[in-house]
Amino acid sequence: MKYSIFFDESNKLDQEKKYSYYGALGCDAKEIFQLNTGVERIFRHFGKQNEFHFTEYKNDRNLPIAFCFLHFFINLNLPVNIFIVNNKLALSMASDMGVPITELRKLFYVKIPERLFYGLTREDDFKHKDVNIYLDHSPEYGSMRIYSKIKEQMNAHSLYRHLNYQVGTVKSIKSEDSFAIQIIDMIIGILVFIIEKSYIETSNKSIVKSDLIYRFLIADDNLHKFQKQINLFKWDGKNTEPVEKVPISQYLSEFMAIKTKFDIKEINKLISITSKNTDITTKQLRKELGYSNNMLQLLFGYKEQVKSEDRNKRLLELYSLIFTK
């Protein structure tokens, strides 16, 4: 059976960002069929035509579809490897060694995907003979000969370690044509948001993103599954092999604690307002809380939590409806 690996990145190595992020998802033909048919079903239910990007999630009217998208994926139990690079250290080392940024990027664009892909193909239960690799479309991959280099080195790795697989295809694919690439984009986006502590911001955009992530993680056993299925590796310039694996829990625990504290404060405000005015309309309540129109789902979630102690009740019922009708 053929095995496919999908790759995406966030934050270029030479951008003014503290870290750059690289992610890879691996699945066999049966799993990619399950992924595609499930996401198609979700998109069809909501009438969604375009692709999903975490950076574009700014209005929580999209909470139901985004929640279902993430909840469906995490329950497929597919492995995702994420590699974080300390950009400042990488650029500093390149400067010390007299290596131009363009050359540095060529090196990293081969070494990082290699490391991610190796992790997916060298597991003890990996029995696939044919492997295809798909990179999110980027014009510079071709000019840097990334496709041929990855193919050569992956096949050399397989031969050297007697892994018995052969990489047949390494090519680009547009994210709009790949739900797997869109999933990686969402997972990387969530991790960037959490690791860089964007949830501390008080902007409406940050608040609705935090609410999406939090609701996704507290649903069923998703928090445990997320920590189990998402493997995080970090390069910080240390001369260590293998590259350090970082427990996601060290980032998630702070996010969950701060988000819980924020929610308690907001729910107490809501209770105080509604106890004084039992006939208050949703619109009036939203204005009293200082919420924009982009935060209605946040408000509905709080009201549901006050009533039933489960803000995800309607979301989980909707998810069940999509896959039972």
Description:
The protein has helices at residues 29-46, 63-74, 87-97, 101-121, 139-143, 146-160, 179-195, 204-218, 222-229, 249-276, 282-289, 296-308, 313-324; strands at 3-10, 19-28, 80-86, 130-136, 166-173, 230-235, 245-246. By secondary structure, it is α/β, with parallel strands linked by helices. The protein has two domains: 3-247, Ribonuclease H-like superfamily/Ribonuclease H (Nucleotidyltransferase, domain 5); 257-324, no CATH class. It has a seven-stranded mixed β-sheet, with helices on both faces. α4 packs across α6 (146-160). The protein starts with a strand and ends with a helix. The mean pLDDT is 89.
In CATH, the homologous superfamily of the largest domain goes by the name Ribonuclease H-like superfamily/Ribonuclease H
Which series of helices and strands comes N to C? EEHHEHHEHHEHHHEEHHHH
**CATH fold node name of the largest domain:** Nucleotidyltransferase, domain 5
User: What is the number of helices?
Assistant: 13
- The low-pLDDT segments are none
Residue share in helices? 55-70%
What is the CATH architecture descriptor of the largest domain?
2-Layer Sandwich
CATH class identity of the largest domain: Alpha Beta
| Biggest β-sheet description | 7 strands, mixed
* Rounded average pLDDT: 89
Assembly state here?
Answer: single chain
Rg computed from alpha carbons, rounded to a whole number of angstroms: 22 Å
Number of strand segments: 7
Overall geometric form = globular
Span between N and C termini? 31 Å
The number of distinct structural domains comes to 2
Structural class computed from helices and strand pairing? alpha/beta
